[in-house]
Amino acid sequence: MRLDDYQWSRNPRGMHNESVFRIRPERYQQIRAGWVKLVASDVEYVQNIPTLLAANITPIVRIYRPQFSDKPADAQAYASIQSYISAGVRWFELWNEPNLGNEWPSHLEPGLDPENIEVYIAPMMNHWIEWAERVIQMGGYPGFIALGPGAVRRHAATIWLRNMMGYLRTAHYSRFRAVLGNGLWFADHPYIYNHFSQEIPGGGPLSARSPEQQNALEGGWHFDYPYDAICQADDPGRSVWGGTPSTPYGDPVGLTAMGGAFMDLLRDYFGGGMVPVIGTEGGIWPWPGPGEAPRVDDARYPGVTWRSHAEAMTAMFDWIAGPQAPPWLFGVTLWKEDYYWETAHGTAPTVERLAATNPPYKSVPALDTGGTVWPGVGGEAPEVEVPEGPGPVHGGPDHHFFFLSPDLDPAWFFAAAEAYWARFRPVLLDQPEFIQWMPYSKTLAVTVISSPAQVEAMNTLLRDPWPNIWYDLIVVDSADALAAIFAQRVAAGRRFG
Question: What confidence score (pLDDT) does residue 387 get?
Fold first, then answer.
């Protein structure tokens, strides 16, 4: 299964509903949402699914069960899932934030310990793998269990995730690989607080506009914490996994942090590629009311105000759809509906801002998840003819080529990319025919620098004939614009956007 095989709206905007039994499709349509997360006790939303799908809003359904982390899915949960699948839903969750004590029965909460595999990890993963297989058999996509963004040892999301995935590798390797290849996705809860910034024009990635100066329709936004320039300048080497004395249990409080961690473990533990990541709770939350002081959770970054929240949330969704975001990040359903429409001060400005701007569209590359085919009944899978050219990218590519559209001056590249080339050493080519001679056992990323006028021609030349390549398109109309893009990539330590 490939990343572009998943069925969804291609619009990353989303909203989490208020509570079970409450759904207001007109609100999701007002903000031009592409996702809605529905927490359901049973089948109370089945009749609303056709309306949502007709409005190009993709529903995610979590069947709610309290204190459920140690329990298997029950018969009623499966019956509810089947009813939603029959109505057109594909995306499902069941368990939720097991790294928080309130998600366990009261007798298990006091001893909550991610290193206690026998009590806290093994039963949960045994139940989850069985549920995931059943969901796939019924025609749905099973979500990996979402974790809260904890960073202290008892609740540390990175420790829980590593041990959950490590147990699956040891106990259910082949079963997980089959789930990976047939609809797996990662449910994340990216509460990012004020871990974002917008550059001052001409100031570079270390500059940051004040909340009052932020504008969603202007560029220079950074949502890649903890890998952004501001964080790295203050604490070099910090990552979602830690990497510095100040982050002994990792730093998961960023839009892309835990999704990136999951991709790391897919690659390292299962030889996997990429699966969709959807924030089924999260966003910039909480934020202050009108006239209140800016909310500042991390003093290295500007705060958030009643009105700047609207600019930043609108920009975040646009950023997710843009080339700078990871291809696996499909969107966020904001926590939660009543905080946007039912505040003490009326409807939040964020609703009006989203309603007044066109929703973005995310182009998804044809990257393989790296799993296996769903097991059949008896017999072996037929032999498959190996195609020409490179195979699907699993984690990181073996080779990296650069191509320039014919109307661009090659001097632009050499002037703008000196630091980038010195760090990442890509290969600059002008003959795309070379790609067909690469063996299928090798993988390839292609960065294309194109003028606006040549985008379609370059897509036809390089993207369309080779669906397995990691296609990294940069569209610029000046040498300065190209230099700015490469400077951001070098500062963030990222080969691709």
Answer: 58
Report pLDDT for 62.
97
Rounded Cα–Cα distance for residues 309 and 322 (Å): 20
Rg (CA), the chain: 23
User: Do 347 and 473 lie in a common domain?
Assistant: no
Q: Which residues does the chain have with pLDDT short of 70?
A: 375-387, 393-395, 441
Provide the pLDDT for residue 82. Answer: 94
391 found inside a domain: no
Residue type, 252: P
> For tokens 């999951």, what's the residue?
262
pLDDT at 492: 81
Amino acid 382: pLDDT: 38
| Cα–Cα distance measured from residue 13 to residue 8, given in angstroms and rounded to the nearest whole number | 12
- Domain count of the chain? 2
Q: What is the pLDDT of residue 377?
A: 36
CA–CA separation, 216 and 212 (whole Å): 12
| Cα end-to-end distance, the chain, whole Å | 24
Closest CA to 278 of 364, 161, 143, 187: 187
How many other C-beta atoms lie within 10 A of the C-beta of residue 110?
Answer: 9
Amino acid sitting at position 432: P
On whether residue 86 sits in a domain, the answer given is: yes
Instruction: Please name the residues in contact with 5: beta carbons below 8 A apart, sequence gap of 6 or more.
Output: none
Range of the domain at 485: 399-492
Amino acid identity of residue 249, one-letter, is Y
- Please, what's the largest Cα pairwise distance for the chain? 69
Residues 348 and 429 in one domain: no
Report the residue count for the chain: 497
Give residue 394's pLDDT: 62
pTM, rounded to two decimals = 0.76
Query: E-assigned strands of 318-442?
Result: 329-334, 399-404, 427-428
